[in-house]
Amino acid sequence: MPQTLFHFVLSLEESVTYQAIIRKGEAKAKVEEARRMLLLFGREQLGEPPQKVQAALDALADVQRLEELAMRLRHVSSWHELLGMEEVVAMEESVIYQAVMRKGEAKGKAEEARRMLLLFGREQLGEPPQDVQAALDALADVQRFEQLAMRLKTVSSWQTNSSA
């Protein structure tokens, strides 16, 4: 029995699948350790990384890139400089950027509210008639979408639901 188990383990370790899993685990561990070491040395020199920098570092999955960043640590004065994010930070602080961002957020909220209303409405009422679909497509008021969504509970057709 022990001899059979030994041969099984030996054959398992020699399998292509086993070796692929080992390599994948090694690669993942290398990235995690390179990131951990970069943060360790970086915190000592630059302090705690801002949230956006931390997110950018968490997204990096290239050991070589993490090592390059570590080598640059002695030559930079901020996390943003290390990652080349100075222009992004300056842009995000501008009044124009903030105004455009708010407009984009409002548009995104309206699009998602429309999509969710249609998703739940189709489940309850079926496909909306073309005129209702056109009216919903033209609508950009999130509060109105929310009002319509609340009315879904009490209506039996899209026509009733879409009236003002």
Order of helices and strands: HHHHHHHHHH
The biggest beta sheet is recorded as: none
Provide the domain count: 2
- Helix fraction, binned, reads over 70%
Uncertain residue segments: none
Number of helices: 10
Please describe the structure with a list of short key phrases separated by commas or semicolons:
79% helix, mainly alpha, 164 residues, 2 domains, 10 helices
Secondary structure layout:
Elements: H1 2-14, H2 16-46, H3 51-59, H4 63-72, H5 79-83, H6 86-92, H7 95-125, H8 130-138, H9 142-151, H10 158-162
Tell me about this structure.
With 164 residues, the protein is mainly alpha-helical. The chain contains 10 helices and no strands. The protein has helices at residues 2-14, 16-46, 51-59, 63-72, 79-83, 86-92, 95-125, 130-138, 142-151, 158-162. Helix 2 runs parallel beside helix 4 (63-72). It is flat. The model has no long low-confidence stretch (mean pLDDT 87).
In short:
This protein folds into two domains: 2-92, no CATH class; 95-162, no CATH class. The chain is 79% helix and 0% strand.
